[in-house]
Amino acid sequence: MSQTTMDPRLLRAPPKRKLRLSWADERVRGIVWQILVVGLFGAIFYWLWSNTVHNLEVRRIATGFGFLDREAGLPIGETLIPYSPTDTYLRALLVGLLNTLKVAVVGIVLATVLGTLVGIARLSRNWLLSKVAGVYIEVIRDLPLLLQLLFWYSIMQSLPGPRQSLNPVEGVFLSNRGLKLPWIEWQDAHTFALLAFVAGAVGTWFWSRRATALRLQDGKPRPVWPAALGLLVGLPLVVWLAFGAPWTVDWPALRGFNFRGGLTVTPEYFALLLGLVLYTAGFIAEIVRAGIQAVPKGQWEAAEALGLRPGGVLKRIVLPQALRVIIPPMTSQYLNITKNSSLAVAIGYQDIVSIANTVLNQTGQAIEGIAIIMLVYLTISLSISFFMNWYNARIALVER
Amino acid sequence: MQPFGLFSTRALSAAALAGALLAGSTALPARAQAPAQAPAAGAVNTFDAVRSRGTLVCGVNTGVAGFAQPDSQGVWRGLDVDYCRAIAVALFNDANKVRFVPTTAQNRFTALQSGEVDLLARNTTWTLSRDTSLGFDFAAVNFYDGQGFMVKASTGAKSGKDLEGATICVQPGTTTEQNLTEWARANRVRFSPVVIERLEEVVQAYASGRCDAYTTDISGLASTRSTQPNSEEHVILPDVISKEPLGPLVRQGDARFADVVRWTHFLLIAAEEFGITQANAAQMVNDPRPEVQRMLGRGGDLGKMLGLDNAWGLNVIRAVGNYGELFERHLTPIGIKRGPNALWTNGGLQYAPPFR
Fold first, then answer.
1. Domain check: are B179 and B311 in the same one?
2. What ipTM was estimated for this complex?
3. CATH code of the domain containing B156
4. A139 in a domain, yes or no?
5. Does residue B121 belong to the interface with chain A, where contact is any CB pair within 8 Å?
6. Residue B5 included in any domain
7. Which one of A345, A355, A373, A374 makes the best mutation probe of the B interface by having the most chain B beta carbons within 10 Å?
8. Domain housing B337
9. Closest-CA residue in chain B for A48?
10. Which residues contact A400 (CB under 8 A, 6 or more apart)?
């Protein structure tokens, strides 16, 4: 019975203080101040709002989001979902949002990989490697991103035209129209095979957790790879075969002005991705280096003294500690990639800013357009922050 | 930390508009206090605001040869620029009392809406939706244009239909963009767009071969072609895919200011019709034709009716010349013919109502 051991004073109800309507009462003062501050904010907001409405009315500028249902009529160069100029503004904005996500997500993954490699290279005992990494970081961080984007884009533009395109491997063409790759003709079977792969990945994760738990019980090692192979390769293969194994390669070919068929990486997308990844990787490299160096040397030595192999030292001892230092600034870098992707307008990649600006220009509704842009970035950024904070909390030092 | 990436003047300008509208009447010289009063004419009085400020702020293009481009001395030259000067002369009898604000295709409307400029003379097409839901009034048409395509001669394209499968460079936020998609749909031409905001960048993309064709108003194509190092390598296709009446526009709600802009344009047209030139304007005051006398302020008080000096017509033409002279000065050198912009007496569309 733990209650009997508890300090009886803690069980007593706190004394009820009567709220006196007097300036001398601390709580009354607190409430009054809070009401004042909130009221002031409300008044400022109301003033801004009513002024805006009034001014828009005086200038006879249309308001509201009714334009979203209207036909957009604007051409978009690359889309992830089917789009034609006869679609609505809403769909055009959705295409822009997906284009932003396409560059942000791929950019975050690639910048993390490259940044980590460069960060580790900078700590390498190989003199040349660490100096090359150092020079890369210093140069790339010191040049404005916009300048780098324009640089990469002008390099893309100075590639030969489609008729003289570089053709390093059969079916691969590099020209100022972008990179053309052969691609399979996508059918339902491929979608289901992809879903099977995702299901297999989830299954593998559960199996590896189970294997670890069982090993902790009886000490017997259970290899994960046979199950992983079956789930990740076997399952999608079976699904694909079950659908009759469709396999038609779509080769890019020069017809008329341009290449038709195949997969295209446009110069605009490639220049933007390259610029963002190289730039952000410079910052990430420094964060990774700082994170690893923040782990005291004693930790390495203690781990080695326990007989852990070098890989094990990094995986079990150093990285978990380094990640605690790395994750918070890394979140900022991920947010920066997302926000910097709006520099796309300078080089003609149609992201959400580019499309929303066109929409606001066509409809003349600047406030709505800017509000949409802000809402989109706020949502993406808050999602990234939310995920990273959750991850940070998960790997945080558990004090016992 | 990197700055928040809302790059580009248009975003800034749009944000500025949002700010200006939020912050209240900063951009407005005078504002009706009583909320019950209808937001009618007089609520936004540009005429008085410009007069009391002493300078006209004119939104022009960022650099289109023939319409608005700074020369090697940094002096703005072009048809639109001289329209701004003409209106400054009408208001102040001084062609230098005008400040030019370069605007992009994207930020021009917000610049006018927010009051950053008094007048937009920037190759802007008159359309119904711009006239209504954007809150503008188009004062006149100073150039009848149409949209076309420019390709490199080496592509061998002879007409727009030959552009099947081509990559086409276009600036966003313009009627150009919508005309292009509508034309492509109607003619079943498939194309891939490359959409770049800044004129210099879009021209660079075309010149470097990123695009097979560049589309904009034919006057703009002629202007771009004239600035290319080997202009004979570029061909403007014969297709004209749209009507583009370009002209100066003002904010809705100040009819007086719109009248000044409109009648200054008519003055330039009528002056050409009556043979009044920059050189002979002073002598033409003694011309026996009553309408010429009224235009130049000798008889009647047309200037006063506009709220201007009675000699405004004389001053304007002495300062900038008539419409034909402006055309000769700015557009003929870059290879643009009068075409629909000839006077109505020569089979063109330029026509001025009577000065009486």
1. no
2. 0.74
3. 3.40.190.10
4. yes
5. no
6. no
7. A345
8. 42-145+244-345
9. B22
10. none
